[in-house]
Amino acid sequence: MTWLTPIGFLGLIGLVALIVIYIIKPNYQNKTISSTYVWRLSLKYRKKRIPLSRLNHILLFLCQCLILTICALLLAQPVIASQKPGDENEKVIIIDASASMMASDGVNTRFERAVEQAKIMVEDTVSGGGLVSVIVADGKPDKFLAQRVSGDQLDEVFGALDALVADGTKCTYGSADLDKAVELAQEVLNYNNEAQVYLYTGTSFTQKNGIIVQNVGVEGEWNAAVLGCDAKYNENNHYEITVDLGCFGRTEQLTVYCEVHGANGRTDKVAPYSKSEFFDPTEEEKRVVFTTDDFGGQPLYSFDYLEVYVSVADSFAEDNFFFLYGGKKPTIRVQYASSIPNNYFAGIVRTMRETMKNQWKIEFVECKADEKGKTEGFDLYIFEHRMPDVMPTDGVVLLVDPNKAPDGSGLRIGQAYAVNSDTTLASGVTHDLMKYADPGRVTVSKYIDIQSHDNYEELAYYNGRPMILAKNEPQAKVVVWAFDLNYSNLCAMPDFSFMMYNMFRYYIPATMSANAFEIGDTVQLTARGTELKVTGNGMEPVDFAEGFGEIALTHPGTYTVTQRSMQGETVLVENFFVRIPREESNIGRTEDALPVLNVERTNEIAFEDLLFYFAIALVAFMFAEWYLQAKKNY
Known about the structure:
The protein is an alpha/beta fold. Helices cover 23% and strands 33% of the residues. The chain has 8 helices and 34 strands. It has an 8-stranded mixed sheet with strand order 17-16-18-19-25-24-23-21, covered by helices on one side. It has a 5-stranded mixed sheet with strand order 5-4-3-6-8, with helices on both faces. Strands 26-32-31-28-29 form a 5-stranded mixed sheet, with no helix packed on it. The longest helix is centred in the N-terminal third of the chain and has 40 residues, at 36-75. The two termini are 42 Å apart.
């Protein structure tokens, strides 16, 4: 029992007043009588009635006390509090739309079975007068398929569910974002904490955290998968191919095939090579390596692409193949022309050729001292001391200690100056070309005065005069070192390597970081030239007018990247492969825990009014008090 108006207990002050009245009330009254006989007779009868009279007074006092008490309690409004029952007939249905839900028993996919079971629950719920919400947990669930709908909207909900499987499954090829799906479900629980949340999935969970999991997988489903593939040079500069195989839900002897396209410059396809592995129930993943011996004793120096696959009738075919690109590296041609050649540039290019062999094939051409360098056909031109008459326009140009300004360079050259050999450079603008390099460590004792320059950034100075400049325009990618390396300590410092590596990364970037990605990844693209374009499976062609950008991958398959050189001709076509996430291949996996639902009960409090019962008691005691009062006066 509880009290809605506790201040009503002030009415109990009436009890105090009643007690005071009884205390000050006289017990006897003086009366004149006519005869002592009558007095004695009355005393005789009075003595006999004293016990009953005293009891009557006590009962009368108690009745009056109870009447006052009940009145005070009525003022305090007595009630019995209880929780108001919620609407338990409300369901939130989450349908897992991850790639593993495409697994099939040969008749229906898991996703189709999930939709059918969801339709049954929807019908049962709304036919019983309940409400239902439906969420499709794909890669980015941001809205309800249906939210708190009732029976009059049943056809609309069925239409939306049927649309999911009308033209094939609407699963994402990636993983489901269950965190976001549960956040949407929580919005329903904020209205009704008694609502039940169901998840239709093929994945098991050790901790369900308030979610009822309905596993739609069936007995006999299994999956064989090519989980990954990579190609690396061994110590003999031959390729070794590593393939990661998976077998989930079944004991099986798997054979993996590797078809090499364009092996060592050939135009035909080489017959597939194969290797077999046995998987017992305790083994789910194994690694297979194809070496020269597996390729019939023929070393694999280059290839256009590899097609790796397993040919089995499993429950999930989307991961039975893998295409690996990048076996034929783009060629970067470097020319070095100097009237006084040194070994520094040849050495650093050889080092970069080795460290970047998995990315580029670098060719180095060194002109003789009396030979003029070419101004076309190379990706990087290094001119030292003697400058060309006209600037190349099809590659990056490094001008070192220029004796004149080539046409098209945008430079105006002054005279040469000799200074103290301890003179160091000062930093200019912050630039990627100077990453990790410190001009304060570089000394110069002979430099060329650059009197003016068009649109160059000044990266280092001596005494206010620019020593290192850079320009990056579509038709002009130029770096200027306005000092003589023979009169500088730069080539003996690590800064020389830093600056040369930075030049490659900045002006000749890799178009993308890898040749294989997963659904859900974001690919950063950077053009070496212009007109960068991406085409691929399940997407409209994308043009990157700025020469760089990114795309989010939503469909598996091969994507093609094309771009043009500075002259306008297509010089590079590259491919990359996108596969489903590795964990989705394990169609029978068990994960740790689902996201936590807030299911704390916060139902409204219901009150049962007790005024009626207290009023009955009040009337009863008032009647008793009247009866006792009447009897007393009789």
